Amino acid sequence: MKLKELLNSTVCETVFGDEEINVESISLDSRTAAKESVFVCIKGSSYDGHEYIKSAVENGASAVVIQSDYDITDIEGYIKENNITLVKTDSTEKAASHMAAAYYGNPAKRLITIAITGTKGKTTTSFMIKSILDSAGIKTGIIGTIGILNGDELTYCENTTPDALVINKALFQMAESGCRAVVMEVSSQAFKRHRTEGIIFDYGVFTNLTKDHISEIEHHDFDEYRECKKRLFDVSRKGIVNLDDKASLYMMKNRDCEYITYGYREEAALRCVKSEFALEDNRPVTEFELDGLVKYRARTFMPGKFNVYNSMAAIAVCADMGVDKRFFSAIETVVVPGRVQSVVADANLQVIVDYAHNEASLESMLTACREHKPKRLVCVFGCGGNRSRDRRIGMGKVSGRLADFTIITEDNSRNEPLDNILADIKIGLAHTDGFYLELPDRRTAIRFAILRSKPGDLVVIAGKGHEEFQEIDGKKLHFSDVETALEAYKEYNSDNKKL
Description:
Layout: H1 3-7, E1 13-16, E2 25-27, E3 37-40, H2 53-58, E4 61-67, H3 76-81, E5 85-89, H4 92-103, E6 112-117, H5 122-135, E7 140-144, E8 147-150, E9 153-155, H6 164-176, E10 181-185, H7 188-192, E11 201-206, H8 222-230, E12 236-242, H9 248-252, E13 258-263, E14 270-280, E15 283-292, E16 296-300, H10 305-320, E17 341-345, E18 349-354, H11 359-371, E19 376-381, H12 389-402, E20 405-408, H13 418-429, E21 435-438, H14 442-451, E22 457-462, E23 469-472, E24 475-478, H15 481-498
Parallel strand pairs: 2-3, 3-4, 4-5, 6-10, 6-11, 7-10, 11-12, 12-13, 13-14, 18-22, 19-20, 19-22, 20-21
Antiparallel strand pairs: 1-5, 7-8, 8-9, 14-15, 15-16, 17-18, 23-24
Helix pairs in contact: 4-6, 5-10, 11-12, 12-13, 14-15
């Protein structure tokens, strides 16, 4: 492909060089630049791609795209000496997205595109949609927190919504492999960084909004966070909105797309008229009845009211697509890695692993478990290092208030002393009457919760979910909550047999 063809997809201006050169690849990282590649300089929260132009050229890049306001004085001579085509644009982030789409032949246009945004519920809802569509014969891919899922092939990626190159390559591969639809989790950061720029989604789903991701490296304040979420409805043909969420009216205000609402409120197009929460063989079961857009009695083994909302969002999308309601039963068997994942369920003990890693998601998780009335609710959790102290204090308050017993422990302390993190959590716990224990080693904490459990207990292991590592002192060490819980449960069974 010629560079000129890529530049035609976005607003760029060539400073000097040849636009007719051949382009074999696009790179956003100088380390992946190769012969006949175009290097797009992205300025992130902790790095600036402009500082790596020489590195990209040394690795073979034949064209470089820079921000219009970047001072090229120091590199101009080097660029000309190496016969590099230099292009400038007002937004390299937007340019990267448009160029990536053009490079892969605008693959989003070959698929039914469903985007989901919200503070929580994105991953579970995406799996529910995929499960229903797959069962109806509509092969569906996923791009989200757990990675990229194309058929049975799962590829890990760093962010909930990866960069534009990863997105468009994945969409291309999905279309080529026979997918007819894709469900994509689109984070507020993705909108802020224009990672999906140029894609018009067939459906945009809004789940909920609570205060989160406010920090120096994420969003400056809640208003910016909320506004980034709202951008979904600028680029969606049809919106699916949780009417019960207090931010729903704000999300729909001054947006032209058509909306379908869901919730418990009478005004919702798809409404839940009845929901019941129980335990079946010590396993949470949720049953609910829908009316309006579709009449349907549903059942899922995911606990709590928030999973009724996730189910409604999925059903609203699929119903509007014309999927027969007999396929909605697929939500009964949905298993989402690390999302309310039932790892152990027997007559004595229930163990759930969940990704809840902020105050709002932990509160939803523990509230949902309480609705099923276990004899005792035990919560094991920690908080990430180099993140907001308010999140830690808030999670401490939530667990102390809702769990019968809390065990605080390690959870990706990164480059921060674990003692500092646990001290912040304990500030939150001190605002409650909850009982707690501090066990810094996560494996020890999980084993203690399971081996010391009593009949009828429900143990929630929160924070890491699907992750299979611990990030400590700059190193990623293998660790899985699911594996650790199963090992402890095996020991728990062995000890009980001896009694």
